[in-house]
Amino acid sequence: MANAWKRESSKQPKHLSPALLLLSLPLVLLLFLFFFNARSPLNLPNSTLYVPQVYPIPPFDCLKSPQAHPVVANIVENLKYPFLYSLSDFGSLPDKPHKNIVRLLKGKPFRKPDISATIQQLLEGMKGRNGLVVDVGANVGMASFAAAVMGFKVLAFEPVIDNLLRICDGIWFNRVADLVTVFEAAVSDRIGNITFYKLVGRLDNSAVSATGAKLAFKSNEEIALQVRTIPLDELITDSEPVLLLKIDVQGWEYHVLKGAVKLLSRKKAEAPYLIYEEDERLLQASNSSAKEIRDFLLSVGYSHCVQHGSDAHCTKA
């Protein structure tokens, strides 16, 4: 057998003639193209071609923003889907440090924000559904990150640059850059600019109304800023599914809702679950009221609202 193998292997290989090679090249090329297209993911029955969303205003670019400092971050406690966030309020060090600084020094996680637990409880029942979570008045991202770490895509709106930088921190900490899109804008019922009041020394309680901004912290000085405004209906297309809309804008809720009339008018199966802050004092500071909001929501089909603390949860019955 060994000798037979040697005899066979010693034969000179046959070469194709140049004419036959030229004739075979087009056939080989056709076979290659057919094989490549057959394996291409674009032809798979369940695949979708990703087309980047083009928005009427540009998203906030965390890569080009300055780094917030100092940075103190920790994981939050007692959430099924925990996330990290960057502490924004340090208190008066060292005499009266913020409670989360004390917890950090003791090796404990940060206390979970109520809105984070609420968002995750609601989204637990929506897992597997396709759609956005829209966070209006994102502050430092407590609702946004609670949703993103569960795998939901988020549109977050926040006009205060200090808060935006903390959101950028959280995007890096939680590895959710592909899930969270941030806009440096105040959501309203028209495109333009508006005067916005930020409290000195605080990252919360900023508001369109100077009175509303200072309701809880009367001793803090406020700074007037010009910020961009945009309605949700200008940014969210009719074909974009939205699962949940959370609004916390210190009394400006009515104007946010009026700018989302198309979104809120969707039929029951496509209308988002709505959470908004309903604080009568803040609403009156912005020349609206809880009744005005409820009447508006009823006109677009949101007939079932339940109060949870200072928040109203509304759906289409």
TrEMBL record:
Residues 135-302 form the Methyltransferase FkbM domain. It comes from Salix brachista. This is Methyltransferase FkbM domain-containing protein. InterPro entries: FkbM_mtfrase, SAM-dependent_MTase, SAM-dependent_MTases_sf. It comes from the Eukaryota. Coiled coil: none annotated. The lineage of its organism: Eukaryota, Viridiplantae, Streptophyta, Embryophyta, Tracheophyta. SUPFAM superfamilies: S-adenosyl-L-methionine-dependent methyltransferases (SSF53335). Pfam families: Methyltransf_21.
